[in-house]
Task: inverse folding
């Protein structure tokens, strides 16, 4: 199967690509990243990997349409980002994030409809397309309306937008909301500085009551969802750890 990974330029995105290649179900990967990111550190010469850099011009969009044609799943690893402190996000940034997500969903839906109209795609009309949205364990509804939106509230609103936005009449589409905690990349603490930094991150997550998950575990879980689906549609940090092979 062919899978699309949107947001392949950060640490999680790169690990998603690596886990996708490790999954025997996945035969090709289309990795889409913003223009400010560096090339993927591995698999960049693999013929099964297609890398696309945003924004796309007319020629680039045509290539994107061709390369993603016949895809069976998408992992959307692009969410709202804060600027400054106190977990705040600007109205413009929130609106931009929602617009990009809905535009991406519209594009993916049109691609699938086009594929299913193709003779080669008719046999896949009863096979669900899987869309995995990477949210956060801190996503939650606000207790009251605030002038400056909180990142957690914006993320919660986006989580609720995804399922209805993906609804397609007479077509099977499965949406999954993944809510990982603080993603960590285990490394050997071979010096005092690294030990202090690790201890500091534990304290920060502890005071924020935020759970943690290993990078490999969350990436493996997200790829597994995209490849095989699941009876559940929302996955907590604990669910992702279990699905990703953790304890």
Result:
């Amino acid at each position: 199967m062919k899978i699309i990974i949107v947001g392949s330029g950060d640490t999680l995105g790169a690990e998603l690509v690596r886990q996708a290649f490790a999954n025997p179900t996945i035969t090709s990967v289309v990795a889409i990243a913003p223009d400010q990111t560096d090339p993927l550190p591995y698999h960049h010469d693999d013929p099964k990997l297609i890398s696309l850099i945003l924004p796309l011009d007319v020629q680039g969009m045509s290539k994107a349409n061709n390369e993603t044609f016949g895809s069976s799943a998408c992992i959307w690893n692009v969410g709202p980002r804060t600027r400054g402190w106190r977990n705040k996000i600007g109205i413009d940034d929130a609106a931009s994030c929602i617009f990009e997500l809905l535009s991406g969903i519209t594009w993916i839906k049109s691609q699938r409809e086009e594929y299913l109209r193709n003779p080669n795609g008719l046999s896949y009309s009863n096979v669900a397309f899987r869309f995995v949205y990477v949210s956060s364990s801190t996503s939650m509804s606000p207790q009251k309306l605030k002038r400056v939106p909180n990142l957690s509230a914006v993320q919660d609103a986006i989580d609720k937008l995804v399922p209805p936005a993906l609804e397609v009449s007479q077509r099977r589409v499965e949406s999954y909301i993944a809510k990982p905690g603080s993603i960590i990349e285990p490394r050997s603490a071979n010096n005092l500085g690294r030990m202090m930094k690790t201890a500091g991150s534990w304290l920060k997550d502890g005071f924020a009551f935020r759970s943690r998950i290993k990078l490999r575990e969350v990436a493996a879980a997200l790829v597994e969802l995209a490849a095989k689906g699941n009876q559940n549609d929302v996955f907590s940090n604990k669910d992702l750890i279990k699905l990703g092979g953790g304890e």
The beta strands are 2-6, 28-34, 49-54, 73-76, 129-134, 173-178, 182-184, 212-214, 234-235.
